[in-house]
Amino acid sequence: MSNTTLWWLIAVLSITAYGLKAFGFVLAGGRRMPAVVERCLALIPAALLAALVAKDTFTVAQDVVVDARLAGVVVAGAAVWRRAPFIAVVALAMAATAVVRAVA
């Protein structure tokens, strides 16, 4: 694929993505959604974040891998469950991952 074709493809996909977003705003406009839809829409960011964390924790390139990152996620989950401050969650997860990597 030539560079020109690649850039045209990027431009077309970008315009399409922005067009679809604009279409959503025009379609929904200032209307109120039903309560069920609003509750579902409120859960989407958390679900996306959980999916990204799971994908980054258990994959390397195209392979499924379980390594030291899992320990960090488990420790972070426990710290969040115990309502630790965000900086403590990050520090504990980082320390757990480092310890598992040092031991393994």
Question: Characteristics of this structure?
Answer:
mainly alpha, two-stranded antiparallel sheet, 4% strand
Short summary of the structure?
This protein is mainly α. The chain is built from 4 helices and 2 strands; from the N terminus they run ααββαα.
Count of helical stretches: 4
Measure the end-to-end span. 43 Å
Q: Which class of secondary structure composition applies to the elements?
A: mainly alpha
Question: Describe the biggest sheet?
Answer: 2 strands, antiparallel
Query: What is the share of helical residues?
Result: over 70%
Strand order of the largest sheet: 1-2
Q: Taking Cα atoms only, what radius of gyration do you get, to the nearest Å?
A: 21 Å
**Which series of helices and strands comes N to C?**
HHEEHH
Mean of residue pLDDT? Answer: 92
Q: What would the principal axes of the Cα set say about the shape?
A: flat
Q: Which strand-content bin applies to the residues?
A: under 5%
Explain this structure:
This protein is mainly alpha-helical and 104 residues long. The chain is 79% helix and 4% strand. The chain is built from four helices and two strands. A two-stranded antiparallel ribbon has the order 1-2. A hairpin with a 2-residue loop joins strand 1 and strand 2. Helix 3 packs antiparallel against helix 4. It starts with a helix and ends with a helix. The relative contact order is 0.07.
